Amino acid sequence: MYTLLYNIGEIVQISISKEPFKTQSLMRDLHILNNGAIVIKDSEIFDIGFNDEIQTKYANTVFSYKFDVKGNSVVPGLVDAHTHPVFAGDRVHEFAMKLDGKTYMDIHKAGGGIMYSVNCVKNANESTLYESLNQRLNKFLKSGTTLVECKSGYGIDTENEIKMMKVIKRAQDHMKISIVSTYLPAHTIPPGMTENEMANLICDEEIPIVKKMIEQGEINPEQIDVFCEKNIYELESTERILRAGKSIGLEGNFHGEELNCLNSCVMGGNLGVRSISHLEYTSDEDIAAMRDSKVCAVLLPSTQYILHLPIPPVRKMIDEGVIVALGSDFNPNAWCYDMKFIMNLACVNYRMNMPEALVAATLNAAASIGRSHLYGSIEIGKKADLLVLNCANWEHIIYEICDSPISLIFKHGELVH
Ligand code: NIG
Ligand code: FE
């Protein structure tokens, strides 16, 4: 089945190299084709070229659908590199506490925060969790995100972690949005346990069970995550858990340098993890380690904004050649799934420019979850995940806050919105 998008003002291809951009100049140098057309065959991008040339070349092709884009622009489907969208309940009461001056760690130490959501997840069954995940991910897709990373992490014990990963697998099997599943066994330490006891339990008992469940096709995680933080999982246990995950084939993708500087990127770089998220307290040594080991730096500007954290050294990361990606970090602490707003925050608060933000929310985000060979740019052979905007200048997707210039969304070549 062939589909044609024609009369496109700007096709923001991002890259034509299939490699994530690594430097500032490359990040600023978006590949844009003016006056173009895109041919889709089934779920993939089959051809891209100037409008006239494509119309002539495909004059005899029978197209099932033709879309006159009328001089407006087309960008790749957005990619969200970091989310926690499986949970029950909400934490609006904690939002009020934060506005009253409580910090994330104050709430955590008082038994709230992640532990509050853990208790809600324990009391929710798989179908309730799936229903709310389904509704949320439909909103992600409608806002322009076509590929998303989803973490477990509110299970804490084996039974509930597996329940969460089953829910994510169900969404992978039934929903249009593409999902990369991440196993997050080490998100907090439940009352009555120590960091060491949890690490032992995860490495010696839980991971072997997870391995079996993966082999049986019941769950489908590709990555392992740890909340590496002072007084939670510190460097040694983080490394142990990441190594245990690696031994069953899971790529490292962890939370680091969010509330304190632990130099976890040096450890992550040595271990060869895929990506590290948050990074508000990243040191120069950490930046060098991420650059040298090609670890993706995943920035989460909504969480930084909500928690009044310091601005991460983003300009330095980009200047040094670190692969910078963006994620929404959608979770009960940071209720934002809209990558358009995340790009706006990255531009205004982190001083990224618009091309950098778009690269970080497409190709680099795809690279951070191991999908840049299929998603994140408009190139022949990649999946046809495309957003048609209602404007000639693509920058409106970042500029318009609380509004959406997206008029059509194609997912794997199919019009879904
Ligand atoms: O990425 N920092 C650790 N984990 C999550 C928060 C999860 C929660 O508070 O429920 C994050 O921000
Ligand atoms: Fe997170």
From TrEMBL:
Belongs to the metallo-dependent hydrolases superfamily. HutI family. GO terms for biological process: L-histidine catabolic process to glutamate and formamide; L-histidine catabolic process to glutamate and formate. It catalyses: 4-imidazolone-5-propanoate + H2O = N-formimidoyl-L-glutamate. GO terms for cellular component: cytoplasm. GO terms for molecular function: imidazolonepropionase activity; metal ion binding. This is Probable imidazolonepropionase. It comes from the Eukaryota. Keywords: Histidine metabolism, Hydrolase, Iron, Metal-binding, Zinc. Pathway: Amino-acid degradation; L-histidine degradation into L-glutamate; N-formimidoyl-L-glutamate from L-histidine: step 3/3. The keyword Metal-binding applies. Its EC number is 3.5.2.7. Residues 274-416 form the Amidohydrolase-related domain. It is an enzyme of class 3 (hydrolase).
